[in-house]
Amino acid sequence: MSANSSTVSQLPWQGPVCVGWRQDLEGALYHLANCILLLGFMGGSGVYGCFYLFGFLGTGYSCCVLWGWFNACSLDIILWSSLLAVACLLQLVHLVYRLRDDTLPKEFDLLYKTLYLPLQVPLQTYKEIVHCCQQQVLALATEQTYAVEGETPINCLSLLLAGRVRVSQDGQFLHYVFPYQFMDSPEWESLQPSEEGVFQVTLTAETTCSYISWPRKSLHVLLAKDRYISRLFSTLLGYDISEKLYALNDKFFAKFGLRFDIRLPSLYHVLGPAAPDAGPESKKNDEEVCEPAMSSPQALPTSAQKTPPCPPPPAATNPPVPPSQVRMSRPNSGILASQTPLQSYRQVMSKGQAPLVPTHTPEL
């Protein structure tokens, strides 16, 4: 044991133990194998970097097998080079299998690049989201109804992939749903996981549409299990609902260009269906006021004709305003401020269920 240790310690300080050096160089296969191995070890990371690495290493070790067979004539070189070449080949097969398993359908791949990749969502996380909807793409024909107001239960969350969907309530158009927007995000956010409800709007396909749908229970389980996915859906749904609110807000503007804000608590009572209900009564009162003035003097009795005219009303009395000007006047800010949100809520609840927007919008 001591002799072996002394020999090992003296090897670095002694010259080579070879009796004689070969004067000729190795063949071209040996140098080609080393050059290819050098290129292989310069590979990068990731899936395609592994393809580069194991591809060049497998080719280099194959050249080493040929060199050991034709030039070196050494069995150990052939065996070790063959083993390393087979290992690289198995790694390439594994990478091909992983890429095939990671391949998504065309619709889901486009959805990932459009909606999730800009948010830097990992592909594995996206696969869990897609697996929750079972990778099924559903279709809607033209004028086919996705949900009916007051009838269809809220049991899923759907995202439009292609086409255009019209949203209406009581026959009145509200807004459109365009590709890569949620079709029922307000309904989803309006209910707790343990609650049930029905749609308050009707969704109809204006063109041939395709969409994906997550079952409500399965999606709630996924959101409860993964906090990152829960925050991701919360962000996407919040942005989608704000886009729908801005689309509704663009509908309310007066003739002189003033845009109303749908977030005002009493805007519904200014532009809502309460104004048209009072229209016939005000019109009747205006007709009663104007009827004596429009009657001819011949129809009056003689005594009434000889009666001196009544004195003019005091200057403080304002003349009646024509009904058309009353309807087209700008809403008074004092009226808007005088009604508290609690009073507005009580007035809405006394009428039943308030729609998402006023039934009668101002004329353009």
UniProtKB/TrEMBL annotation:
Membrane is among the record's keywords: yes
SUPFAM superfamilies with a match to the protein in the record: cAMP-binding domain-like (SSF51206)
Its membrane topology: Multi-pass membrane protein
UniProt-recorded Gene Ontology molecular function terms: cAMP binding
Residue ranges, compositional bias (Polar residues): 326-347
Domain POPDC1-3: 26-251
Subcellular location: Membrane
Statement: the UniProt record of this protein carries the keyword Transmembrane: yes
Main location: membrane
Classification via InterPro entries: cNMP-bd_dom_sf (IPR018490), POPDC1-3 (IPR006916), POPDC1-3_dom (IPR055272)
Biased composition range(s): Pro residues: 308-323
Protein name: Popeye domain-containing protein 2 isoform X2
